[in-house]
């Protein structure tokens, strides 16, 4: 380690870099008066891990290829006068984690490489950098799809987990009070990106101190402590295993007694029974994976075929598991997967046994690659699936007492029986709903990005209207036969919600329909489903219909009427639609086809033909 910090050294750094040992790992040149550029020959220090050149008078552009500094972890160039573009190569530095560029004169931030790594790679490929840029002159961000990035923040998905990482430990970007945060950005409405990137930087001293390789006292103390307790641990080992066995038996007995008191008595299966039925939980029996566990196909000894959900081991208490069992066991509806039993094993290993759905999930049926995907769902089947999902959610929200909120409605959680009837699955996220209009605010955000409502994604507000929003996304997926986010498609089509709104406002709704249907569908029903989907996707949850209202719409009941006014929300939520004209509110008179005016006030009453329609 070489530290020349807090001296009065001046001059340029080019000659100094040439004199350094290439094996150096830690270099601290902070708090001096060095001038000129950061030398390009810095790249020869391939073993460098920590570099601090903060609080000098360095200037010019940062012309260093950080790709070659593959071992660099910490970079601090704050409090200088560096300018130009923040180099794109920082996203290629394999181990770089902390970059402090506070109080310089940078004018551009290049996210091109970062965006491509996230869009084309995996979570392991995504850059994991904390980048601080407060106190610069950044007025432009370079990215191939900055507008899509904002849309993904509003309606993210499992794929865009990393695209949201500007607010996560993977990539943490703070611009502070830069010009880009204050300007209108050439008309782009980037409200949500700014919400996360333009926060004030309250933790400027995030720079981690490099460890002292010569200090070994802590290690010696640790070795002594471990040696001292080793004998004690060995003497307690037998007692621990005995206690563990007693605890497992006591826990199982407690669950059985509590369930009996609540008059909820699902069958209990043994671990060995389920292990045999799933061929030792073989990957060939695996049906799917989720955030709360893995599902396996199982054939029981009596010949019954069931689905076994092996829950991810957690610190969930017995009482919490019991509450979940009570919730699930009390839910019985033809459009909800039925619980057949449970299993409790050691190490808090729990399993739930459900009825088996012969045609697997809606996701596999629409855009899967297995043999069961050879048959394309026809429009009648798709419409029936829409109605089945709506009925299942209406039961959860309004018929159960107390009502339930699913919080993870997506195609992967919609299973299909032998007749392609929809059955909602995965109740690992179900929570009791409060009274009619009450909401719940949660800090943890479980579920799947891409199906979050804005109030849930940004504020953690939970209500039945979260499920209504997710239902709207699923409706569009059923019509289009594709995922809600697909970055392999052209940019204007990559976000299904934005593309649907574009086609809607252009009067080309039928262009959204899955081409595999080859035109064999009911146009009026397609328009009805898209109308309903967009009404579910309104920003204001109070303007979204209830699920029972949506059931009536799909059943085409003559008394069903759902009024929507979504033009303002569409303009805010879809930055890709920069060409949307200023629409004027037209009351309850439906669509105004004259001039460029368009009303989004719509009624789904089929008898009066007032359902929102645009030219096909």
From TrEMBL:
Alphabetized GO MF terms:
ATP binding; protein kinase activity
The record's keywords, sorted A to Z, are: ATP-binding, Glycoprotein, Kinase, Leucine-rich repeat, Membrane, Nucleotide-binding, Repeat, Signal, Transferase, Transmembrane, Transmembrane helix
Ranges where the Protein kinase domain occurs: 281-562
Which positions, given as ranges, span the membrane? 219-243
For this UniProt entry, what is the primary localization, expressed as one broad class? Answer: membrane
Q: Which domain of life is it from?
A: Eukaryota
Keyword Signal among UniProt keywords = yes
User: What are its GO cellular component terms?
Assistant: membrane
- Annotated localization: Membrane
Alphabetical GO biological process terms? regulation of innate immune response
Which residues bind ATP per the record? 309
Q: Which InterPro entries match?
A: Kinase-like_dom_sf, Leu-rich_rpt, LRR_dom_sf, LRR_Rcpt-Like_S/T_Kinase, Prot_kinase_dom, Protein_kinase_ATP_BS, Ser/Thr_kinase_AS
Q: PANTHER family annotated for this entry?
A: LEUCINE-RICH REPEAT-CONTAINING PROTEIN DDB_G0281931-RELATED, REPEAT TRANSMEMBRANE PROTEIN KINASE, PUTATIVE, EXPRESSED-RELATED
Tell me the protein's name: Protein kinase domain-containing protein
Q: Which source organism does the UniProt entry give? A: Marchantia polymorpha (Common liverwort)
């Amino acid at each position: 380690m070489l530290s020349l910090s807090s001296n009065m050294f001046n001059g340029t750094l080019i000659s100094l870099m040439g004199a350094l040992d290439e094996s150096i790992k830690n270099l601290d040149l902070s708090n001096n008066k060095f001038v000129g550029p950061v030398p390009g020959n810095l790249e020869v220090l391939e073993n460098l891990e920590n570099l601090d050149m903060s609080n000098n008078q360095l200037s010019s552009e940062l012309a260093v290829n950080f790709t070659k500094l593959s071992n660099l972890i910490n970079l601090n160039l704050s409090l200088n006068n560096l300018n130009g573009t923040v180099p794109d190569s920082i996203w290629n530095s394999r181990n770089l984690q902390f970059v402090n560029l506070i109080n310089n004169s940078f004018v551009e931030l290049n996210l091109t490489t970062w965006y491509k790594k996230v869009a084309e790679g995996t979570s392991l490929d995504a850059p994991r950098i904390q980048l601080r840029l407060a106190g610069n002159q950044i007025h432009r961000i370079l990215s191939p799809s900055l507008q899509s990035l904002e849309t993904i923040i509003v309606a993210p998905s499992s794929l865009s987990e990393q695209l949201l990482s500007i607010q996560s430990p993977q990539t943490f970007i703070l611009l502070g009070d830069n010009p880009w945060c204050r300007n209108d950005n050439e008309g782009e409405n980037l409200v949500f990106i700014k919400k996360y990137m333009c926060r004030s930087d309250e933790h400027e001293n995030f720079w981690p101190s490099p460890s002292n390789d010569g200090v070994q006292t802590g290690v010696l103390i640790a070795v002594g402590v471990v040696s001292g307790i080793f004998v004690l641990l060995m003497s307690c080992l037998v007692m621990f295993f005995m206690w563990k066995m007693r605890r497992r038996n006591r826990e199982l007995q407690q669950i059985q007694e509590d369930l009996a008191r609540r008059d909820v008595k699902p069958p209990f299966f043994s671990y060995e029974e389920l292990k045999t039925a799933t061929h030792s939980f073989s990957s060939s029996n695996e049906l799917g994976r989720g955030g709360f566990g893995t599902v396996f196909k199982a054939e029981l000894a009596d010949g019954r075929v069931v689905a076994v959900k092996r829950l991810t081991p957690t610190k969930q208490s017995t009482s919490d598991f019991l509450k979940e069992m009570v919730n699930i066991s009390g839910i019985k509806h033809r459009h909800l997967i039925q619980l057949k039993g449970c299993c409790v094993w050691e190490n808090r290993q729990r399993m739930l046994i459900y009825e088996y759905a012969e045609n697997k999930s809606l996701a596999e049926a629409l855009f899967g690659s297995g043999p069961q995907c050879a048959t394309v769902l026809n429009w009648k089947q798709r419409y029936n699936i829409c109605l089945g999902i709506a009925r299942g959610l209406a039961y959860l929200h309004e018929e159960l007492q107390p009502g339930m909120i699913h919080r993870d409605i997506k195609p992967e959680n919609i299973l299909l029986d032998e007749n392609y009837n929809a059955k909602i699955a995965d109740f690992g996220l179900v929570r009791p709903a409060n009274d009619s209009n009450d909401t719940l605010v949660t800090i943890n955000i479980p579920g799947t990005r891409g199906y979050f409502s804005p109030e849930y994604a940004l504020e953690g507000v939970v209500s039945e209207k979260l499920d209504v929003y997710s239902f709207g996304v699923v409706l569009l997926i059923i019509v289009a036969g594709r995922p809600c986010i697909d970055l392999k498609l052209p940019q204007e089509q990559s976000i299904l919600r934005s593309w649907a709104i574009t086609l809607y406002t252009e009067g080309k709704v039928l262009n959204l329909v899955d081409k595999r249907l080859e035109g064999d569908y009911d146009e009026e029903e397609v328009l009805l489903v898209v109308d309903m989907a967009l009404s579910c996707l309104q920003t204001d949850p109070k303007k979204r219909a209830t699920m029972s209202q949506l059931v009536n719409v799909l059943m085409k009941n003559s008394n069903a009427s759902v009024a929507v006014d979504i033009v303002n929300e569409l303009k805010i939520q879809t930055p890709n639609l920069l060409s949307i004209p200023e629409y004027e509110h037209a009351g309850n008179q439906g669509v105004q086809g004259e001039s460029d005016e368009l009303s989004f006030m719509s009624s789904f009453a089929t008898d009066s033909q007032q359902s929102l329609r645009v030219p096909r």
